[in-house]
Amino acid sequence: MQIDQNAIESVRRQFFANGKTVTDWAREHGFDRHLVYSVLNGRSRAQRGECHRIAVALGLKKLEDSELFAECHDGGGEKTM
Fold first, then answer.
1. Is 42 left (phi over 0), alpha (psi -120 to 50) or beta?
2. Cα–Cα distance between 70 and 30 in angstroms, integer?
3. Helical pair 22-29 and 33-40, crossing angle rounded to 10 deg
4. Contact criterion met (CB below 8 Å) for 53 and 46
5. Is the terminal CB of the chain with fewer CB neighbours within 10 Å at N or C?
6. 45, 2 in Cβ contact below 8 A?
7. What dihedral angle (degrees, nearest 10) is formed by the CA atoms of 62, 18, 77, 69?
8. Would 27 be classed as within a structural domain?
9. How many domains does the chain have?
10. Residue 70's pLDDT is what?
C-alpha cells in the first residue's frame, strides 16, 4: 500500500509551519535522517522495519493491532512524534 501523497505534503507543511527541519525531527526521535527523507520523498514504501516505524511516527501510517502485538512481543517499541 502506497502512502498518500497528500499526507506527506501535510507533514512537510507541518515541518515548515513549526520551523523544524527533517534532520532535527529525525535526531529528536532517534531515526536516521536519510531514511526519513526516503519516506518523505517516496523512495521507500515504508512497509516494514525502520521506514515503517518512521511513517507511523510521522502519522503517515496507522500501527495496526497485529503489528502492535508483534512489536510488544519482540522487544521492539514504537517511537512517537
1. left
2. 21
3. 120
4. no
5. N
6. yes
7. -20
8. yes
9. 1
10. 61
55, part of any domain:
yes
Q: Are 40 and 22 in contact (CB under 8 A)?
A: yes
Q: Which residues of 39-51 are buried (b: 16+ CB within 10 A; e: fewer)?
A: bbeeebebeeebb
Domain that holds residue 20: 5-73
pLDDT of residue 2: 78
Q: What is the pLDDT of residue 64?
A: 72
- Residue entry with cell 499526507: 7
Q: What is the mean pLDDT, run by run of 10 residues, along the chain of 81 residues?
A: 89 96 97 96 91 94 65 53 54
CA pair distance 70, 17, nearest whole angstrom: 35
